[in-house]
Design goal:
Layout: H1 28-31, H2 34-63, H3 71-97, H4 101-124, H5 130-150, H6 153-158, H7 163-167
Protein name: Integral membrane protein
Transmembrane segments: 47-67, 73-94, 106-124, 130-150
Keywords: Membrane, Transmembrane, Transmembrane helix
Length: 169
C-alpha cells in the first residue's frame, strides 16, 4: 500500500508511514511460547496500571476543587484525553497479544508518543495544578514502562517476519 500526499488530510492514514512488512497475524505457536506469554502478561500489567491511574486522575479532576478560574475544563479535557489514549493502548496490547502485527506496530508508536507527551506536559505546560503534574509524571512512568515492554526483545522476536515473507519482496 503506497502513501499518497493527499492522505495527510486523513489523520488515520498517517499510520501508513509506519507500516513495514506484511500485516496479518503471527502464527499461534509463536504467540503461545512461554517467554512471549510472560512478556505480554507484563505488558498488559503496565498498560492496565496506566489506564487505572489515568482514570483515577480523571475522577480526581472532578472531585478536587480548582482555585484558578477556567482551569477546570482544561484539566478535565487533559485527563479525558489521557484516559482515552490509555484505553486505546490497552486495547492495542490485547490485540497484539492475539498476534496482530499492525496493532503491535501502532502500540509501539502510541506508547512512545504518549510517554514523551506526558513527561513534556508535566514539565513544560503551565497552569495545571500540582497534583495533576504529579499524576501526569506517574502516568508518564507507566507509559514509559508500557513502551519499553512493548519494544522488548521477546515481543519483537515474536513479531519478526519469517524469511519466506521477506524474500518475496
Amino acid at each position: 500500500m503506497r502513501f499518497n500526499i493527499l492522505d495527510l488530510f486523513n489523520p488515520l492514514s498517517i499510520f501508513k508511514l509506519f507500516r513495514r512488512g506484511t500485516g496479518g497475524t503471527v502464527p499461534e505457536q509463536r504467540m503461545q511460547a512461554p517467554e512471549v506469554r510472560r512478556a505480554f502478561r507484563t505488558l498488559r500489567g503496565w498498560a492496565l496500571t496506566y489506564l487505572i491511574t489515568a482514570a483515577l486522575a480523571l475522577v480526581a479532576s472532578f472531585v478536587i476543587p480548582h482555585a484558578s478560574t477556567g482551569g477546570t475544563i482544561g484539566v478535565w479535557i487533559r485527563c479525558g484525553v489521557v484516559v482515552l489514549i490509555s484505553a486505546i493502548i490497552y486495547a492495542l496490547s490485547l490485540r497484539a497479544q492475539r498476534g496482530h502485527r499492525s496493532s503491535y506496530r501502532t502500540l509501539r508508536v502510541f506508547a512512545w508518543l504518549e510517554s514523551i507527551g506526558c513527561i513534556l506536559v508535566a514539565l513544560i505546560v503551565p497552569g495545571y495544578p500540582i497534583w495533576l503534574r504529579a499524576a501526569t509524571i506517574v502516568i508518564g512512568v507507566f507509559a514509559v514502562g508500557t513502551a519499553v515492554t512493548a519494544g522488548s526483545r521477546r515481543i519483537r522476536r515474536a513479531f519478526e517476519l519469517s524469511p519466506a515473507i521477506t524474500e518475496g519482496r
